[in-house]
Amino acid sequence: MLFAAPQPVSRKPPVQRPTSWWLSMLRRRAERMYDEALDLSQPIPWESEAERQAAIAFFNAAFRAEESGLTQAHALADEVSAWDPELGECLRLYGDEEGWHRELLTKFLAHIGGEVRPMGRVTGTFYRLYGRAERVETIVLTNLMFETIGSTTYRLALREARYPAVRQMLTILTRDESFHVPLNVHFLREALKRSPPSMRLKLRAIYTTLFAALLGSAAASRRRALAFDRIPFRVLAGAYAEHLGRLFVHESDLDFAPPELLLRLFGHSRRALASSDDPSAVSVLSAEAAVDRERVVVTALGGARDA
């Protein structure tokens, strides 16, 4: 049922940019990346110790995501540079941004009395499997889906973020993911150009399996982080389904179809996502709007207040 053939839907061809455009944008972002600093001058008045511990768990998960992105991007940069130097430099600069996030999260965790902790069973399993991926297209597809649920989680968490330092940290992560997600779509397009046709079926199976697993991961994260982000399971999993679905419905040339059954479990469908006027988070327009960090307006999901 999960692998049912996709039904045709009407979709506009996505706007695309060459690698040289992405490289120029990444270089521009790198020039001022380290100018920004967290304001950690005031202690956070947590409502309870449970809320603080949940915040530590939440930002530990964010740290692991950034660390993984850094490691994989720099490893791929070395490999990809052999056949596309510009794309290789894009990967390296992207990894540098992930590394900067890791530095900020390390400082933030220390500020809230936390530290980088060993990964839990579910998170550890995800990243061990991710680390075993060897082909460029498999690594990029997996990272793209991780980036998408990260962006979705941060934007949802902004709805309930009451403390200035927390809002600043979430805003930085959300803002930069607005650029990273469409950037990773470009990485995937370039990787697929060199991918043999025999890999397509395997990649579709990976996409569908990971789609289901990431929706399930929302339940595991609720045990650790709910007291902090206050996102109910169904809201989080439903947002994952929507944005992981829209990810490829709007980027139709990539030829991945979100599992209709899972979409319908959370009130969505391929056709509805394709016909929505809501701009795709993976679009080039989203990336263009997010190039200059100081000019980005970050909004929470669900009609919450601006950040």
UniProtKB/TrEMBL annotation:
SUPFAM superfamilies: Ferritin-like. One of its GO terms (molecular function) is oxidoreductase activity. InterPro entries: Ferritin-like_SF, RNR-like. This is Rubrerythrin family protein.
